[in-house]
Specification:
Oligomer: single chain
CATH topology: Helix Hairpins
Strand content: under 5%
Number of helices: 3
Shape: elongated
Number of domains: 1
Order of helices and strands: HHH
CATH class: Mainly Alpha
CATH architecture: Orthogonal Bundle
Number of strands: 0
Structural class: mainly alpha
Length: about 70
């Protein structure tokens, strides 16, 4: 999921995506702590996607739609 895809989403979609990614990060973190995570890159990617969504949500709230 790239920044262009996220910028096209509406506020409701962004909120749903945020909740989904938060849940995914929590699940992957629990797996990592239990030493059952096969691909650590999955957790890294999920965190980056969540950060991207949160950043763009903040931009939209402030009115920076670039």
């Amino acid at each position: 999921m790239g920044p262009r895809d996220v910028r096209k989403m509406g506020a409701d979609e962004l909120a749903r995506k945020e909740a989904e990614l938060r849940e995914r990060v929590a699940r992957l973190t629990m797996k990592r702590n239990a030493r059952r995570l096969d691909k650590p890159s999955e957790l890294i990617g999920a965190r980056r996607d969540l950060a991207r969504v949160l950043t763009i949500q903040g931009e939209k709230r402030r009115g920076n739609k670039s």
